[in-house]
Amino acid sequence: MAVFVRFAPSPTGLLHVGNTRQALINWLFARAHGGNFMLRSDDTDAKRSTVEFAEKIKRDLNWLGITWDVFSRQSDRLKRYAAEAERLKQMGWLYPCYESAEELALKRKKQLSAGKPPIYDRSALSLSYDEKAAKKTKGILPYWRFKLNHKIVTWNDIILGKSERDMALQSDPIMIRTDGSPAYFMASVVDDIDFSILYIIRGEDHVTNSATQIQIFHALGAQPPMLGHTSLIVGADGSSLSKRLGSISLEELRETHKLEAMAINSLLSGLGTNKIVPANTLGQIVENFDITRYSRANPHFILDNLIQINKKILQETSYSDVADRLLDLEVNGGARFWNAVRGNITRLSEVKEWWLLLNTPIKPIIAAEDSAFCITAADLLPAEEPNAKTWDLWITAIKLKTARNGKSLFMTLRKALTAKDYGPQLKDILPMMNRKKIIARLHGEIA
């Protein structure tokens, strides 16, 4: 049977590094096994789900290169969930409950105060027919829970290995809300059955949910998918990602931090394994992907590491891969300019600074004691417009005339020509500057 996985975000917010990692791992797993990847929009929470967030999730996945073979929206399948809920009712798996949110909160508070786990007490099961009828008369609508079998649920997790949960320690999950809409457990299991999902791979915070869903699969007469649970990302100091870095969305990494999609793919796919390798294509990551490499230790997300990967990827990116984006930045230097500056940028947007430096007026930095040297250097500049041979000829002449060498030679020229003490090799950028501009800057003029 072909591998079929799904990524099922709720469109109640932007994708962040945590759930993006889950999307990427699922996509890589599917592609590495020649299988299919499904994007499912879990939008049954009508109050919080928005079309805007749903579209932004698609946009961000597309930006990363994560494409889907199947798309489904839960709000389009409400009749299907209702039919399966009715079947579960007829089989005796669902039972109606009438407590308000406030009443449930009070019950949990009392249980915790008594040192007991906050598990639903199944008091609704003891309601008589007349008591239920009385609530209906008062306009109190029921919500429906799934009656768990209080036994040990076990499975062989493809990441964690043998796993188990004691279902006597879990609350019966809510399946149908008071307004008749399906809750998470109801819709999710029906979808996984109907779309023949073979693997469910998600964060370890879903382990208990998985145990619950195994029983729901069986109640509906279906074989549960194979399960895998990855460790959760934490911050640099080991604190919860949701508390420290939950606001770091894909949109922020792209729009604010100006990072490359492949830098994010490289880091997130490697977090939790013993090796993070900067990759220029998703195909490279697919070739080396192995789900068994993910460990149980919580990987640390460090933004500076992502930025360094971004720099490494740009250094290895060919001009043809960025040509259109450079034109969008109004940088028209072609391959020669890109090859000269790519080793000195951390983000692609920084190329604009170097382009302007070469093509718009700047104020040179020339120390008083270097003024005469710079004028001499200007006089020694070869008469023709700079070309690939100019630098070597020019530097040889300067050394012979001034006896300068090393930093006193090269740093002085760099500051005069670029107003910076770092940057691309002067030999590479000199041919991109006209002779008149070079001489003017060496004379300390704004040019």
From TrEMBL:
Any Pfam family matching the protein: tRNA-synt_1c
Keyword check for Cytoplasm: yes
Residue span(s) of domain Glutamyl/glutaminyl-tRNA synthetase class Ib catalytic: 3-306
Keywords assigned: Aminoacyl-tRNA synthetase, ATP-binding, Cytoplasm, Ligase, Nucleotide-binding, Protein biosynthesis
Top-level division of the source organism's lineage: Bacteria
GO biological process: glutamyl-tRNA aminoacylation
GO MF entries: ATP binding; glutamate-tRNA ligase activity; tRNA binding
Family stated for the protein in its record: Belongs to the class-I aminoacyl-tRNA synthetase family. Glutamate--tRNA ligase type 1 subfamily.
Name of the molecule in the record: Glutamyl-tRNA synthetase
Encoding gene per record: gltX
